[in-house]
Write a structure and sequence with these properties.
single chain; H+-coupled_symporters; 21 helices; about 450 residues; MFS_sugar_transport-like; transmembrane helix; mainly alpha
């Protein structure tokens, strides 16, 4: 818009320019959210897909199953600090801003991943090798615990109300793309490298890549601004604190006023934790170790499934904008209860085409949950505890049920002798999540400031 004063023309910012600037900020937030979450899950995928190699490099046990259990145990133990990290990063992000928390956490997360790629193995430094691996995994778990929740919260607060589902679905999509890249790398490397080369240096490559990627994401995030929703909330809290002379911490407010929302969110996240880690990271090992399927075939199937998964996550996010989050999440629970056991029966045939079709069906079912959960959790908590509530419920579920999924599945088969044991475990988790979702409220059509 142009105005004149004493014959001189001045150009002032009009609504179109402000809208363009807002759209550019949303784009930057989306890019940084995507990349940060991508790094985290590319690393987790690499650890899972290269688990058999890592077991050889870091553990001395001659029993391959025990060494594999030890590898999965380190994977599970790395989740111990996730609830603590969630409380730290969530409270930090609710008090000091989403930008500040995410900029710092990505440096710690990517740095720990990079150092894992530099670790010498058991043959070089003995018991110190698995000890250092565990230490770095726990540092990474602590720093990564705010990434998914923080990125979804940050993006959800910028997104238009009517499109919050599809915007927030970018977060699980970046998760799937991280897994896809990990699967592709595992498929290619196991095909072209010898077992000696894989054990010597091949497995290190994906972890070393996290270093430069983390620096790029950190730089992008330093250029961002916190959302208007968050800024208005902090202004209101600052005004209230001036009047009363005191303020409440996000942790105290969460556990005092939002216990019901926290419990329901934890229940909803349980199925996501077990389903995600079982379907997308455990099944390749299940097919090779239990079904005795060729490793290259198993990794190829996972890669194909992840391609479909990415597209379906966006579709499910879009559908949830139309029908609501609650209906989508209930449908996912019912589908897992009905389909999981028959699906595992077909997986045990070890035939490429049936296994592929079953994994595709399981991925499609998982996307109904995964493509909806990030927007659902963003909408469950008010702005002053949104990051903390999302991060704690999501990471507590992942610490207890997600990080242990591969270990528990392997252990259940070991003690029961039944290859269907992991399927019944998933059915039980889906039943609990169904109860939680029936108790939940629908907030898909609400402005985040009105929650």
């Amino acid at each position: 818009m142009t105005t004149a004063l004493n014959g001189t023309a001045f150009v002032t910012k009009d609504e179109g320019t402000e809208a363009d600037e807002q759209q550019e900020m949303v784009r930057k937030v989306a890019v940084s959210s995507f990349l940060g979450n991508f790094i985290e899950w590319f690393d987790y995928a690499s650890y899972s897909y290269f688990a058999t190699v890592i077991a050889v490099v870091f553990f001395s046990n001659s029993n391959h199953t025990v060494a594999l259990l030890e590898t999965f145990a380190v994977f599970a133990l790395s989740f111990v600090l996730r609830p603590i990290g969630a409380l730290f990063w969530g409270s930090f992000g609710d008090r000091h801003g989403r930008k500040a928390a995410l900029s710092l956490s990505v440096l710690l997360m990517s740095g720990a991943s990079f150092l894992i790629g530099c670790l010498p193995g058991y043959a070089t430094i003995g018991i110190a090798a698995p000890a250092l691996l565990l230490l770095l995994r726990m540092v990474q778990g602590f720093s990564a615990s705010g990434e998914y929740a923080g990125a979804a919260t940050f993006l959800g607060e910028y997104a238009p109300t009517k499109k919050r589902g599809i915007y927030c679905s970018l977060i699980p999509a970046s998760t799937a793309i991280g897994l896809l890249c990990g699967s592709l790398m595992a498929t290619v490397m196991t095909s072209v490298l010898s077992s000696e080369a894989m054990a010597s240096w091949g497995w290190r490559v994906p972890f070393l890549l996290a270093g430069p990627l983390g620096l790029i994401v950190h730089y992008i995030r330093t250029q961002l601004a916190d959302s208007p929703v968050y800024n208005r909330m902090t202004e209101a809290l600052a005004s209230a604190e001036k009047k009363t002379g005191k303020g409440q911490s996000p942790l105290r407010m969460l556990f005092t006023y939002h216990r019901r929302e926290l419990l329901i969110s934890f229940g909803a996240s349980m199925l996501n934790a077990v389903g995600f880690y079982t379907v997308l990271t455990y099944l390749p090992n299940y097919l090779t170790e239990t079904v005795n399927m060729d490793a290259t075939q198993a990794n190829t199937i996972t890669t194909i499934c992840l391609v479909l998964y990415v597209g379906l996550v966006f579709l499910m996010g879009h559908v949830s904008d139309r029908v609501g989050r609650k209906k989508m999440l209930i449908a996912a629970c019912v589908a897992f209860i009905a389909l999981t056991v028959p699906a595992f029966m077909i997986l045990n045939t070890g035939l490429f085409l049936p296994v592929l079709l079953v994994e595709l069906a399981m991925c499609a079912t998982l996307t109904a949950n995964d493509g909806t959960l990030s927007s659902y959790l963003t909408e469950t908590f008010p702005t002053d505890v949104r990051f903390t509530g999302f991060a704690f419920s999501f990471n507590m579920a992942n610490a207890i049920f997600g990080g242990t999924a591969s270990f528990i599945a392997t252990w259940l088969i070991y003690v029961s002798g039944s290859a269907l044991a992991p399927a019944w475990y998933m059915v039980a988790i889906a039943a609990i999540a169904l109860v939680a979702m029936i108790m939940s409220h629908e907030n898909a059509d609400k402005d985040l400031e009105h929650i």
